[in-house]
């Protein structure tokens, strides 16, 4: 068996291109297969990244014996279905954010990985930035004392396109699932799972949340105050407040 991890990519959209470019910088990774719903797109993607195996369906990619792990890069609403397909075919999976569109889907995905004894991870890349490693070290050293509150936002102004995955309810559109998840992930890294969730959202003309405010309460009464938007530019910052200081 090759020393390199043999990767497959499921879906040939925008982030799949970036991921394939990123993989090319890793010495222990080899991109060997790609799967698309469309033969032409599979071939085009494969030609662009010099990928030997191109598949005209996700099912065909999932059963490719050359592949160790599959990166799922489809719209949110398909993450569960596509991940399950890969796991049931014996492949490890890195699934794009948001991991799933509800708790029931997430639970099923985790249970499948456990049953198959396969690696499964959400591609929540912000957790692995050098900045986050530094931040975790600062918090572990108690630099700002006991952490009591977090404010964090992630919002940008997109033009309304009812056909795009951002504005289409059936593709899991809306601010929370697209970028709000980054703020929830930061809160989870700092405080763990919340014990209370309160939220208010504005649903726009296409039926997705164009902006939302979320307050998460935790076991020691720590608060995370988060907001997210796809029709409003926000500062895109986070402030962590402790009893002895703040980190911004
Ligand atoms: N980590 C990050 O920084 C980051 C950044 C952007 C996006 N993302 C995540 O990555 C996922 C994909 O986003 P993207 O921007 O790459 O989307 P995209 O450009 O629309 O690509 C999605 C791909 O999924 C496949 N697909 C399967 N069923 C589809 C359907 N019904 N409608 C549209 N596409 C369908 C298509 O590939 P085929 O036609 O080849 O099958 C398509 O090219 C999303 O969940 C998003 O949240 C993550």
Structure description:
The protein has 248 residues and is α/β, with parallel strands linked by helices. It has two domains: 5-123, Rossmann fold (3-Layer(aba) Sandwich); 126-247, Dihydrodipicolinate Reductase, domain 2, CATH 3.30.360.10. The protein has seven helices and twelve strands. It has a six-stranded parallel beta sheet, sandwiched between helices. Strands 8-9-10-7-11-12 form a six-stranded mixed beta sheet, with helices on one face. A hairpin with a 5-residue loop joins strand 8 (196-203) and strand 9. Helix 4 (79-88) packs parallel to helix 5 (103-116). It is globular, with a radius of gyration of 20 Å. The chain starts with a strand and ends with a strand. It comes from marine metagenome. Residues 134-248 form the GFO/IDH/MocA-like oxidoreductase domain. Keywords: Oxidoreductase. This is Gfo/Idh/MocA-like oxidoreductase N-terminal domain-containing protein. Residues 5-121 form the Gfo/Idh/MocA-like oxidoreductase N-terminal domain.
In terms of topology, how is this protein built?
Blueprint: E1 5-10, H1 14-23, E2 29-35, H2 39-49, E3 53-55, H3 58-62, E4 69-72, H4 79-88, E5 92-95, H5 103-116, E6 120-122, H6 130-140, E7 147-155, H7 175-191, E8 196-203, E9 209-217, E10 223-229, E11 238-242, E12 246-247
Parallel strand pairs: 1-2, 1-4, 2-3, 4-5, 5-6, 7-10
Antiparallel strand pairs: 7-11, 8-9, 9-10, 11-12
Helix pairs in contact: 4-5
The structure holds NADP nicotinamide-adenine-dinucleotide phosphate.
Residues 11-16, 36-38, 41, 73-76, 78, 96-97, 123, 125, 165, 178 line the site of NADP nicotinamide-adenine-dinucleotide phosphate.
